[in-house]
Amino acid sequence: MSSSVETRTSIVWDYAPAPESADHIRLRDRYGLFLDGEFREPADGRHVATVNPATEEPIAEIGWAGPADIEAAIETARAAQPKWAALPELERAKYMFRIARLIQERARELAVVETMDGGKPLRESRDVDIPLAAAHFFHYAGWADKLRYGVNAREVRPLGVVGQIVPWNFPLLMAAWKLAPALACGNAAILKPAETTPLTALLLAEICQEAELPPGVVAVLPGNGETGATLVRQKKINKIAFTGSTAVGRDIQAALAGTGIPLTLELGGKSANIVFEDAALDQAVEGIVNGIFFNQGHVCCAGSRLLIQESVRDEVIAKLWQRMRRLRVGDPLDKNTDVGAINSAEQLSRIEALVAAGESEGAVRRTVECELPARGYWFAPTLFTDVSPAHRIAVEEIFGPVVSVLTFRTQAEAIEKANNSRYGLAAGIWTDKGAKAFEVASALRAGVVWQNTYNHFDPTAAFGGYKESGFGREGGPAGLRPYLSVVR
Amino acid sequence: MSRLTVRKTYKLWIGGAFVRSESGRYDEAVGVNYPRASRKDVRDAVAAARKAAGPWAARTAYNRGQILYRAAEALESRAETMGVPRDEVDAAVDVLLHYAGWTDKLQPVLGGINPVAAPFLSFSLPEPTGVVGIVAPDAPALLGLVAELAPVLAAGNVAVAVLSESAPLPGLDLAEALGVSDVPAGVVNLLSGRRGELARALGAHRDLNAIVDAAGERELSRELDRLAAETIKRVRHGEAARSYEDATDDALERLHAVTELKTAWHPVGA
């Protein structure tokens, strides 16, 4: 009888802890810079601890590169690059295929280290970051002997020595996005990993050694923003590629003014995720969750502006809130965790400041009540309703697990609201009507548009922004162009 | 009694209208007066361009190709009145024809289907970046301008161009040729005046997506780079095109510089 079911005491089935073991990882206590094919002490001897944001415990001491180290890296890269570019193209490809294979071989170890160093759930580092990093090297390895087909040219040339600065949200994956096309095109690369997440880039340096990549072709120089600022001001560098905030991107573009040094920027976003009334709403709710809570919302293309058609607003918000309350926040190494630790204390305070602004400007805040670990940096999933398009939480990138809900009545209004941003990185569309999806996708001023999915990446598909989200593309043949000069 | 000639009043071309500078300023060249545009004229031109950008981009590639072809026809028919050597006009006409043929080739050349490892139809297609500021070289006054303008339009963008400072009249004459072709109002906006003043106003404008600079002035280029950084504008510096080959050998690079690539993912199956 159905009535007897209703009178039963409800049983809450909780998850048992399912921590991934960390005992197979091989981490040293101390890492130097990776320069000229070997690990070296920085010239000024400076080391800074990298901290696990879920425990606030130091993991390893990391050597930080100073100006002398950067100059040395450029010198060795300049010496190594012509030989690298002169290798038979398929031989260059073979080194890169080796790197792809070694990433796969050490996948579990890399996933655990990525999670320890950055705070992202193991489920994500294991299933997304590391496999995609390997796929990226595999894809671009195959380009190394087909470059001119990728850019419709008869003759192409590498640029030389490229400086690459990557963020802390997808440390290894972003390193792969940068290094793979640069190397395939015959450049030597100097990679500056983010201040808070240098470890997997250093493990990738070990992989370069294991692959017997010629010394000097790749250098890994950890450090902070100052290190990056020094790197982009080097006269003898032939290209800069940066992924990070729009504020820093603007500084880099200004610093390179008049130098003629080519630049690509992959910057911030405030991407719209648009739910139409004809969407499969349960599926859309899963997509909204993936769009904003994936990697704690530390995603440049996060679906942080949720646009819901008025007729289904209440239903979508009710379903979303119910789903949010079931998100498991906590130990990133636990295989059941959905939302891990905020990457740093600094980022946590930025999120808190913007959330406070949302409240003080009059938006209605709902934050999931859940037990947060006593140590570490945490922010529970948060939903804002009654958001006006002028509110800071509807305009500025929060880069945290916070979604702002706006509504619309017509398709035209949805497009106008979605495009009403200085950013233009990504957008999501939820509808089962094919013609509508194609029409809206073509009207959105954004570099990536996902229909009935979100945060989906592939090495064959170009990624990058419109407007103040940057310029240049990564992935596919379009990703070769920033690392080549077309001779004819 | 000999007939008194009717003199031409040279005007700026903004939003499809021939107008004097709002500032009332003018300069003089080869015995005629022409407007010295102001920063306000730059702002008006960008606003007119922004209004025209969406509809221009939304036209079919075929239609945009025909409009550029029609522009070439209009220029050819006025070849003798442009005030520049005939072979420069010929080259400019040919450049317009070359880029007229690009409008429906750019998408298949720069775009394609992405073979993603998931059940999606994923494709990447070029789209216009939007409103493009052009800083034309001093010489050649006509060809140097058309070489920058044609790829910008062919890629689906709209333009605000600062004309040759030393020889602005061929650019203003081009406005009249384009004005009687099918180029919609606001798609091309042409301003004569002091290059330094106008180019800096363009570079600093927050609603401009890209700058194409062919003036070849080092200090101005650096300044434009610096101004562009404020709103992450795309910038391409180039040399003045002196021949048809200069304007077309690197056609794909010229087109690419004012193009965005959009990747769309559509589900296949449920």
Can you put this structure into words, describing what you see?
The complex is a heterodimer of chains A (488) and B (270). By secondary structure, chain A is α/β, with parallel strands linked by helices. Helices cover 38% and strands 18% of the residues of chain A. Chain A has 16 helices and 22 strands. In chain A, the strands form six sheets. Chain A has a seven-stranded mixed sheet, sandwiched between helices. The radius of gyration of chain A is 23 Å and the shape is globular. The termini of chain A are far apart. Residues 1-5 of chain A have low confidence and may be disordered. Chain B has helices at 39-58, 61-77, 86-100, 106-110, 143-154, 169-179, 195-204, 218-229, 244-248, 251-256, and strands at 12-14, 17-19, 26-29, 32-35, 112-114, 120-128, 131-135, 158-162, 188-191, 210-213, 234-237, 259-267. The longest helix of chain B has 20 residues, at 39-58. Chain B is α/β, with parallel strands linked by helices. The chains are: A alpha/beta (488), B alpha/beta (270). The interface between A and B is large, with 49 and 39 residues. β19 of chain A pairs parallel with β12 (259-267) of chain B.
Shape type of chain A = globular
Ends distance of chain B: 86 Å
Order of helical and strand elements of chain B: EEEEHHHHEEEHEHEHEHEHHE
Q: How big a fraction of the residues of chain A is strand?
A: 15-25%
> Which percent bin holds the helix content of chain B?
40-55%
Topology diagram in text:
The complex is a heterodimer of chains A (about 500) and B (about 270).
Chain A: H1 2-7, E1 30-31, E2 33-35, E3 38-40, E4 47-52, E5 57-63, H2 67-86, H3 89-105, H4 107-118, H5 122-141, H6 147-150, E6 156-158, E7 161-165, H7 171-184, E8 188-192, H8 199-210, E9 218-220, H9 225-232, E10 239-243, H10 246-255, E11 263-266, E12 272-275, H11 281-293, E13 305-309, H12 313-324, H13 345-360, E14 364-367, E15 382-385, H14 392-395, E16 402-408, H15 411-419, E17 423-424, E18 426-430, H16 434-443, E19 448-451, E20 466-467, E21 470-471, E22 484-486
Parallel strand pairs in A: 1-5, 7-8, 7-10, 8-9, 10-11, 12-13, 12-18, 13-16, 15-16, 18-19
Antiparallel strand pairs in A: 2-3, 4-5, 6-22, 11-21, 14-15, 17-20
Helix pairs in contact in A: 3-5, 4-5, 5-7, 11-12
Chain B: E1 12-14, E2 17-19, E3 26-29, E4 32-35, H1 39-58, H2 61-77, H3 86-100, H4 106-110, E5 112-114, E6 120-128, E7 131-135, H5 143-154, E8 158-162, H6 169-179, E9 188-191, H7 195-204, E10 210-213, H8 218-229, E11 234-237, H9 244-248, H10 251-256, E12 259-267
